[in-house]
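Hi L.,

You mentioned the student needs an example of a multi-chain input paired with its predicted structure. This one should do, with 447 residues in total across all chains.
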Amino acid sequence: MKKLTVNFTVNGERVRLRVPANRTLLDILREDLGLTGTKRGCDTGECGACTVLMNGRSVNSCLVLAGEVEGAEIITVEGLGGEEALHPLQEAFLEEDAVQCGFCIPGMLMSAKYLLDRNPDPSEEEIREAISGNLCRCTGYIPIIRAIKRAALKLKERK
Amino acid sequence: MSLPPIDYERPKCLHDAFSLLEEMGIPMAGGTDVIIQLRESYLKGDFSPRLVVDLKDLDELSGIEDQGEHILIGAITRLSDLIENELLVHYAPSIAEAASRMGSIQIRNKGTIGGNICNAAPCADSIPPLLIHDAVLILASKGETREVDLENFLRGPGKTDRRKGEILIGVKVKKRDEGGEFFIKLARRDALNKARMNFAAWLNLRDGKISEARFAAGAIAPHPIRVREVEELLLGEEPSEALFIRAGRIVRDKMLEITGRRWSTPYKSPVVENLTARVLSEAARRAR
Ligand SMILES: Cc1cc2nc3c(=O)[nH]c(=O)nc-3n(C[C@H](O)[C@H](O)[C@H](O)COP(=O)(O)OP(=O)(O)OC[C@H]3O[C@@H](n4cnc5c(N)ncnc54)[C@H](O)[C@@H]3O)c2cc1C
Ligand code: FES
Ligand code: FES
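Structure written out for the whole complex:
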């Protein structure tokens, strides 16, 4: 197995790595770059815990091969905001008590960001659809849906 | 879960892609089936190294084009790009509808229509709607391009008429200016949305009678099929509840004939009958 050299950006920072071709973007983020916000649930595209934005679209990073990230722009949950400056989505999730164990939350946040980037004023139906590829075993989804609505309002007020 | 050792190439032109595929390469578009299958084969103890040939950079394979009577959908067009495409929404809405019901948003942002066709799952959701649009595949290899009816391309679960080294360039579908069509699927209630069964129908009416009909079903046979017996039954008849119930019985009998009785038969039979009737009556309603 040959190694690949891949160049891409993560949260705006340039990265250059030499990795075996059988690594996934999820492996690279967690193991090579130490960005452990992105979670590994199923490794088969079913749970959405590994969701990141790749060239502006939400994807399951467990289903992205190392070679595919060449030239790509990746945004992970770490790129949303940090403790000093939370993203309105992160604030809203805290305010609505939408986090229990937290394992699904990074993926939920990225799916919610993908939704709000394209549709700043989503209906409840659209929010449900937007997170339908993200499984949560704890919250029953209701507070998560409320949080996304709240974040949409916050983002509108800021404009 | 680890992936087996692989090599990876992302050719910039078709010519290079053909050369790479000659050497035991596996074509990959979105990888939503390929990556999972590589993991599964590795778990089963298959360590044979593979060369994954990523088709992403081949511009000849992407985009949706108006060709007069047909629409050409490039093989690596992502499922999410089918959903709101104006040509499809207008002339082939069941294809757009099926795409919108596949997997999750994340899967649709990566998975492609060509991957869904070549993977040839018995329940592949894009295939019944493509069949009712008389889909023709364009396949190319070094030195040869050929067209094959989708119906003849499918051979069994995961089996197709794709020859070694061949790449699916695109799929040509007939525009439907008239009539009405519908797609319906029965899915497991999880994020996967993997279909248990799916059906698509297109009906055209003349003077209140059915003048043209297409009906296709997935997961009632080893690969999705057009059910000609149903199409023949419908021709020349007025759309009615009773007619569509008769069609449902034909599809049920066809399934039993092909797959024999199984543990799931008592569950599947009434579902097949009802969904057939439903997809036909909705297509007829839209045709009026
Ligand atoms: C969580 C999850 C949910 C899913 N839900 C659904 C669903 O609801 N409905 C459904 O139908 N499917 C579903 N799938 C299956 C899969 O996403 C689809 O079949 C998808 O369309 C495959 O496209 P791809 O581009 O990812 O294919 P790939 O994985 O890239 O390829 C699939 C097969 O086609 C071959 N291939 C791909 N492109 C070409 C080409 N241009 N020329 C020649 N060969 C080619 C590959 O070698 C491989 O054998 C799901 C998968 C997952 C992981
Ligand atoms: S870890 Fe990728 S979808 Fe579950
Ligand atoms: S908060 Fe525990 S899985 Fe969602």
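You could point out the following to them. The domain at 195-287 of chain B is CATH 3.30.390.50 (Enolase-like; domain 1). The first strand of chain B starts at residue 6 and ends at 9.

Best wishes,
N.
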